[in-house]
């Protein structure tokens, strides 16, 4: 849960920055958002969630 909330917050910040800088347009943004919602309801969604969790775990295990 914490990983998905952090990921949502991070991507939300990125979207706002891109929107304010002018790199993001309305129609491509809506298309990608609709694609994401459609993808979330398919059978591949658990695999994507597991991959994101795995990458997040790998990143957190790196010590500097």
What is the ordering of alpha helices and beta strands?
A: HHH
Task: Tell me the fraction of residues in β-strands, as a range.
Answer: under 5%
Find the count of extended strands (DSSP E, 2+ residues): 0
Number of helices: 3
Uncertain segments of ≥5 residues (pLDDT<50)?
none
Integer average pLDDT: 82
Helix content: over 70%
Classify the secondary structure makeup into a structural class.
mainly alpha
Gap from first CA to last CA: 25 Å
The main β sheet shows up as: none
The gyration radius over C-alpha positions equals 14 Å
Give the overall form: flat
Chart the SSEs and their pairings:
Layout: H1 2-21, H2 26-40, H3 45-61
Can you walk through the features of this model?
With 64 residues, the protein is mostly helical. The protein is built from 3 helices and no strands.
Task: Label this structure with key terms.
single chain, 64 residues, mainly alpha
Question: Could you write a compact summary of the structure shown?
Answer:
This protein starts with a helix and ends with a helix. Helix content is 81%, strand content 0%.
